[in-house]
Amino acid sequence: MELLNGFQNRETPSLPPDLPKEAPKPLGPALVEIARLISSGDTAVLQEAAACAQDPKGWFAAHQERYEERGVDSPDDLDSVQWLGLVDLLEEHGWVCERDWQDELEDFLYFLENLKGFQALGLELDESWFDEEDDIPAWCTILTEKWEGVCVAAIDIDSDSYVLFPIAAPQLAQLQKLAEEIGHRIDAAERM
Q1: For a tag on the chain, would you pick the N or C end, based on fewer CB atoms within 10 A?
Q2: Is this structure's pTM higher than 0.85?
Q3: In whole angstroms, what is the distance from residue 8 CA to residue 175 CA?
């Protein structure tokens, strides 16, 4: 018992003061590689992704209106500036579409089938596959079943919308890994 009392009476060693938060990891190379995979190497997309990654504050200044629409009013959060910049440039070039979580089936299908990746992968849609009362994750589950080896993926932007694009399964695995390395998430839309 004496031995236990000796341990119980010891002072708890003081813990070190809170350390400053680790600076965000630069998104640069991973951001450009994500852009390359989603856009099938679209040169214009890659140039813009590189510009966004290399000079996020300059990118923010040049695209401030877009950021304000998203509620970002300062270039100080470089991580958000780069991640949202990637989404915006991919959407501008027709590689992704951002859809509200309450999207109508007709709109979902229209925007998805007009993506460059949809056309490049030679995909097809049939409205009869879907129940319009379902939602985006349910519709994407159906597409994963219908499109062999291809799914609808989504870029997580911490909102209630879906940033969607079709992608082959092996490329999705690469995108998941790259996004995770820089503290973000890309996954099959039905798992978002």
Answers
A1: N
A2: no
A3: 51
